[in-house]
Amino acid sequence: NMENSSQTMCGQVVTRTKNRIIGGEDASRGAWPWQVSLQYKGKHVCGATLISAEWLLTAAHCFPSKASVSDYQANLGNYQLLNPDPNAVWLKLSHAIVHKDYAGDGSSGDIALAQLEHPVLFTPNVLPACLPDGTVQFPGGTLCWVTGWGEPQYGASLGAPKTLQQIQLPLIDTMSCDTMYHIGTNIPPTTREIQDDMFCAGYAAGKKDACSGDSGGPLVCQEDGAWYVAGIVSWGDMCAIPNRPGVYTHVSFYENWIKTYHPRAHDCGCWELQGEIRKGSRFRYLPWKLNERLWQMTSPDTCQSARTVLFKLLSFSLSPVCGRPIVLNRNVGGEDSLEGEWPWQASVKKLGKHICGGALITHNWVVTAAHCFRPDDDPSQYTVLLGASKLENDWSHKQSVRVKIIIRNPRYAGEATSGDIALVQLVYPVRFTDYIIPICVPTANVEFPPGMKCWVTGWGDISEGQDLPPPKKLQKLQVPIIDIQTCRRLYSIDMGQYLPRKQIQDDMMCAGYAEGMKDSSCVGDSGGPLMCKMNQEWLLAGIVSWGEGCAERNRPGVYIRLTSYQDWIHRIIPNLKFVDAMKGNNRLTNQGTGGADGRGQILIITILLQVLVWTLNHALALV
């Protein structure tokens, strides 16, 4: 099953080609399924390489500083640009990350990552290339391939229907290439032209070069049956002239940088099992997250052993991980949060501007406040940002997803009224990571007693009328729960100076300090979460709704109580499992509906090995 098995089979080509034509010829359809056409305002400008379901690798120079990422789109699975394949995919980019060292043509750091607006579905014509690590080396002389829709020769554009081109070239090591680039120039030998993060490919005599390749496109090399993106087409002098081979960005040089922004970039690899495998042996835990595709496991066809191990999937077990972040320490006061501290925190954006907070409760549902939206709002204007510790200048763990549906509670009638709660469905499920997991939603019987210390987070004002300064780090504040009668009494004090008068309704709760000074109305965003920890799990107790002033005396923050809306939430998300924290083991309930819900859970796959012995010269084992 291609959809289920190809996630980790990077660098595997489904289309079989007996030979590859050397010298800038038409490629075979499906021969290079990771090849991407990067288009700006509908025009092809660069090549790129698919390295996972949602990430592209390309050159930094493909994103000029004045260009807006919103004007780019990626075309995947295409063969001829002017004769689009009916199964080709066009996706917009959510953002692009250009390496900070890039300073212009010919400089170091000519590498960029681009994230697709949502993960692409793998097909025989859309598959990722492998990323090399320290164990994969390609020495000088290795024959590799460059592909793209670039010029077939210098100054001549590719003719219709613009068929994908390919060329085979030998690698040239960095120092040898640097020597070649000094020939015929007055540049001192001590002045490096080819930097450590570059290498070359081509021929000293010229004639064959990456004229066939696009800027930003892939140079791929084969190792043990898998294709690795070793280089990115970067620059060169003219095209196919003597002593001026094409220059490429060395991908393995930037392995750590890529992992910084995309820690799960290495989707494939080989592992040696320790010890003997006998009947009944098992891998204790193979963590796999719901909504991600299954792995395919193979042995290379060069395997010398005559024994094949078949991996048989025997059982699944679901373990809830909602409300369990990787960061555990907390500081009191309206202060910066740590990365991964509140992995359910969401930023709701309208036309790219942050307007409200929210909380992730399943892989594709976010809960927030009804007052964040107008009844006639177009959902397509909204996006939800997850995994963010800072709103600006940091894309290391973020996922940005467009909104599909906005459902406001019908009881909501305006500011400070009941029913200030909304559910937002995303256009596709987010990928759970250490920095993006859902918070637990409590059952209706769960109580948060007065005095209980809970937390509110958001990117709100740090004081009355003072915006959160760049880079807009997520703020956190610990606040005690205030019982509803006390809160009503506090809000009755000096009520005349606040008009119109507001009432604390039964579906509301309060948290904060009677004396003011610290207030969630400052730190928290409208729609953001109020969270309480019970039995080692974080529960979504409330949603930031309203308040009077900011850190004013006798005016604690007011929240919509989640437990008042269990039935309403259940009707919209019937498979959501609510957490009954009043029981010692935090049993999950979902109002009588059964089955796995894809909520904040990690699928722990227990794989038992059944060893079958076959006499095969070339063994292939598949899950």
CATH architecture of the largest domain: Beta Barrel
- CATH homologous superfamily grouping of the largest domain: Trypsin-like serine proteases
Approximate shape: elongated
Name of the top-level CATH class of the largest domain: Mainly Beta
CATH topology description of the largest domain: Thrombin, subunit H
- Order the strands across the largest sheet as they lie in space: 8-9-10-13-12-11
Derived structural class? mainly beta
Report the biggest beta sheet as strand number plus sense, adding barrel if it closes. 6 strands, antiparallel, barrel
Strand-residue fraction?
A: 25-35%
What would you note in describing this structure?
It contains six helices and 31 strands. The chain has a six-stranded antiparallel β-barrel. A six-stranded antiparallel barrel has the order 2-3-4-7-6-5. The protein has a six-stranded antiparallel beta barrel with strand order 23-24-25-28-27-26. The model is unreliable at 1-8, 15-22, 265-320, 327-333 and 592-623 (pLDDT under 50). It is mainly beta. This is Peptidase S1 domain-containing protein.
